[in-house]
Amino acid sequence: MSEKNIRSAMNTMTHGVYVIGTHADGKYNLMTAAWLSQVSGRPPMLMAAVSKSHYTAELLKASSRFSVSVLTKDQRETALKCGSVSGRKKDKLAEVDVEFTEEGLPFIKGAAACIICEVTSVTESSDHCIFIAEAVSGQVFSGEALLYREKDFF
Ligand SMILES: Cc1cc2nc3c(=O)[nH]c(=O)nc-3n(C[C@H](O)[C@H](O)[C@H](O)COP(=O)(O)O)c2cc1C
């Protein structure tokens, strides 16, 4: 099977659309992520695959906590704003409606839910860092979750 076929097949997979909120060394950032999923029930744990080159990977290595905003169907624009430019170049918090958790982590106003995670381990998977984290708190708001399909975004 050619690499193109493998990519095409994998691109038929659906994911949610999330925004990872970080705060480290006085710096804040927001990054859209689709490669994020639950990996354990008790305790509730998830993994986030973040490109090694992204600012978010740098901030996550400097801080053990992050927020996950579960975007709603009407937040596609927010996904694009947080997913098309690096926080190294632009203050994305100024581009979208943002709130802060008790822990001081940024999250997306109007998200369907917000989950606070604490990193327990980091592994490398070729070009991505895999952050394994325990979900330490969560809140459900309202709205239906946005689904990621490659053709809707790229
Ligand atoms: C819908 C969507 C999903 C994305 N999913 C991921 C992902 O799971 N992992 C990742 O590393 N980048 C993902 N990206 C790309 C990053 O969000 C993007 O490169 C971002 O600008 C990196 O920001 P940062 O440098 O501020 O961390 C996604 C982008 C979009 C639009």
From TrEMBL:
Q: What class of enzyme is it?
A: oxidoreductase
Give the E.C. number(s): 1.5.1.-
Tell me the cofactors it needs: FMN
Pfam families on file = Flavin_Reduct (PF01613)
Q: Which domain of life is it from?
A: Bacteria
Concerning SMART domains, the annotation shows: Flavin_Reduct (SM00903)
Residue stretches making up the Flavin reductase like domain: 10-152
Which keywords are on file for this protein? Flavoprotein, Oxidoreductase
Keyword Calcium included in the entry's annotation: no
- What InterPro entries does the annotation carry? Flavin_Rdtase-like_dom (IPR002563), Flavoredoxin (IPR052174), Split_barrel_FMN-bd (IPR012349)
Annotated GO MF terms:
oxidoreductase activity
Please verify whether the record's keywords include Oxidoreductase. Answer: yes
Q: Which residues form the signal peptide?
A: none
| Ranges in coiled-coil conformation | none
Q: Which family does it belong to?
A: Belongs to the flavoredoxin family.
Name of the protein described by the UniProt record: Flavin reductase family protein
| Species | Blautia caccae
* Species classification: Bacteria, Bacillati, Bacillota, Clostridia, Lachnospirales
